[in-house]
Amino acid sequence: MAISRDEVLHVARLARLALTDEEVERFQQQLSAILEAVGKVGELDLSGVEPTSHPLELSNVWAEDEPRPSLPLEEALQNAPDREGGYFRVPPA
Amino acid sequence: MSWEPVIGCEIHVHLKTRTKMFCRCPTGFGEPENTRTCPVCLAHPGALPVPNARAIEWTIKLGLALGCEIAPRAVFHRKNYFYPDNPKGYQISQYDEPLCISGSLAMPGPDGETTIGIVRAHLEEDAAKSVHMGGAEGRIHGADRSLIDFNRSGTPLVEIVTAPDIHSSEQAKRFLQLLRQTVRELGISDAEMQEGSMRFDVNVSVRPEGSDELRTRTELKNINSFNFAAQGIEREIQRQIGIYEAGGEVEQETLHFVPGREDAPPLRSKEEAQDYRYFPEPDLLPIEPPVEMVEQARSEIGELPQERIRRLEAELDFGLAEGLVTSGRDELYSRTPGDRRAVANVVMNELAAAGIDPRAVDGAELGKLIEARDRIARDALTKALAASGEPGFSAEDYLGEALIADASELDPVIEQVIAANEEQVAAYRGGKEGVLGFLVGQVMKETQGKANPRVVNERLRAKLKS
Amino acid sequence: MIDTLRLTAEQASGLLERKEVSVAELHAAYLGAIEQRDGELHAYLTTVSEPEGDGVPVAFKDVISTRGVETTAGSKILAGFRPVYDATVAARCKQAGLPLLGKTNMDEFAMGSSTENSAYGPTRNPWNPERVPGGSSGGSAAAVSGGLAPWALGSDTGGSVKQPAALCGVVGLRPTYGTVSRFGIVAFASSLDQVGPITKTVRDCALLYRIIAGRDRCDTTTVDLPEHVELPEADDLKGLRVGVPKELNEAEGIEPGVSASVNAAIELCRELGAEVGECELPRSVEFGLPCYYLIAPSEASSNLARYDGVRYGPRVPRDSIREMYEQTRDAGFGDEPKRRIMLGAYALSAGYYEAFYGQAQKVRTVIRDEFAAALERFDVLVSPTSPTVAFPLGAKTDNPLAMYLSDVLAIPPNMAGLPGLSIPCGLSEGLPVGLQLVGPQFSENVLFRTGHALEQALGFDSVPERLR
Ligand SMILES: [Mg+2]
Ligand SMILES: [Zn+2]
Predict the structure, then answer these.
(1) What separation in Å is there between the alpha carbon of B372 and the centre of ligand 2?
(2) Which residues in chain A have their CB less than 8 angstroms from residue C283's CB?
(3) DSSP B130
């Protein structure tokens, strides 16, 4: 189960990773090898088997609609790489 | 040939819970930027979502009002995409296991009922707010930076998806108005367009009249007014018909509605088609709505707008019935006595124009004004209606003044009556006070009731003394 | 003079209670040891000079959010990040009076089995500095083994507590999923992540687990413990049914020296009165690793999307948001996170979901059922924790798959949400061998009791020979 160069570029785009050509090259090989190995799950016929998305079979855990204090503005912005007034600032979309 | 529009709507409605969907930051509108945030709604490392019980109850309530089945098991999924207003890099939403499924709403119309299928209603979280700076007044194009405010980040949103059962822009507008009134009456949302607490996307396609094919549809996004919805849809219908009649093909695309602008610029070209990589949110457990929760929600639902429209249609024409209900004025209409059409018109037009809160109006008093409205001067009525919302408002006070009180107008009539009723006049002068009433009645009769009884009384006494 | 190499947390709290040492003296003793040996081991990323609390100091893997104390998860993309809140486990340790000693090194975002994937340089194994300490909680394991902390917390997604504990000759617990809060733990794979203690003794392990375990309202996937955490006393295993899963003990790649120590420990179980029998996990071992390497990267690809240079962390400035994202993330993430993010994005993307993520979730069901069946006949399943002893630095760095195999025995029970305890059971080539004890959900008390009895009988000296 090999992954093509285009597929590597596609997932890199999806994941917002700018890869160098060297990285694309290397990751294509490594990911192909890994996909080869994990593709093994396809060997099992599991039609009719329920998927497990959680180790515990719990449901209906929620909280009442009661406000708790929010962060002070300065703490909210404390780690911001860039800000303008009380806003987080980013380059244009 | 003639074409039939095929329209489906996707409506997002803010729930007016006290706190956000997955954290307990207070919700709100218009607070200073980033003052209602926490590690959860800022997506700090390690923060985890905790669902808001009330948001779940209210979504179930809405689902029931829209005739949906409440799923025995609902699951939150992650919808993965990057955008600065989407702090986690995924939106917690619902995918193939939503809370409410396959409902329908029987919408009354001028020529009978249309059933609009409700495909689903699910719960999700809203994004943060971006302000685009440096471009043309906050427009995204040409901006040199964006400023992000996370106060709205994580506000509970219900997304309602209809089947493509709507066939005109006018019908779409009426459906959206009915839906808005419904969520407001359920008490789960203010559905304020200006505040963005209700927004719609519409899918539009057209097909030859009579065929049942579904042709390529385009999506109009971010519409925040009923008229814009109608305009946008109408424009899109005409555009598509134009393309087909010129022998062309409509392209699947997402368009951004810009009021006043003739065309709708594409939002996303189709090759940039999204791959959201939905998967079950591992930080959250499934919801299995308990029977008590569903029944409690059911018990809180009153008579729905469409039911009341149908009831009022029996006594009014459709337009008035629908108008009263979707503007939330039918309740005052119902408790105001008098000629139904007259009452409906006053409540819909004059009172609305005067900007009076229908809930503040005493129906009985309003009834008196309406009953007298042909007998009194226009401006007097307007004055009275304008005051009808005030506490302790009494129709009498206004009706009194509204009647003829001017002696110079009344005296001739009074003298005429005195002259014509010598016997009674003599009896009165002889001490039979009671006769006065008869004489007043005569004056009122002569003036077709437009005379102010108090003034007539005074003038009569005065004249009989002399 | 406090001998931090030998002192257990239990002994340390005794010294404090009897006022034989002060909190300050104890704290200073460990800072001294760090001063002395951490230059070589590099177990710590951050240390805290002033003790806060009246208890035994503790070290946290740098994946645990600590208010005001830099928390990087071993990644450049969180360089300088100071959390505005405490993880629930950190808050509970504070409440229990445990002062924070420091934050320990780890594979970036807990992705790795050798701590060589740390953006801040590798940690070395106290038994042999040329060898890895295991990972991803290698810093915590090396700190406890090297006398740089009386006890520590790590996190285990696919063996990241059990395996480094094994490779460093200390005790490590991966708790039942849902018994320890994940709130404030930098997320790797949400349906698998669990925080667990790394200690010198099983009793210390029980003590620390008692402090951190229990339902947390901030983590809806947590539950209350069905029973109180007991300090193990018994030194026999009478009445205990010990199962030896064939596949977990005969998997290819298990070193002979490792098998020898483990078999000796199994023999010891018999001598201690346990009833020992064979059992099978036909598909769990063969398919556990592939299953894990689909589910964990898929969840990780989504969990790591929040590192976008918008709200925190370093940013590579660019003129468009998209370039800013791509450059910030490319510069901030190391190779292993990049590999797993892409692998996960691929496994979840349109057209592949069913074949990969969907199928892996079904395999997970198969694994649960197999363990459930085995655990109907046995109270505890035993096997090596890792197929090998500590390997040389660099031995597996350019072959991801070889590195992944280091967790082939630790992963299967994790997929089923089961607790696993690793205790040292001997040496091979002069390096520690770990014994993995697995029980049903919420069977931590049984694991502690078993581990403690074996620990007493084995008399393993957890102090690295070269440091004695
Ligand atoms: Mg939506
Ligand atoms: Zn919040």
Answers:
(1) 57
(2) 44
(3) E
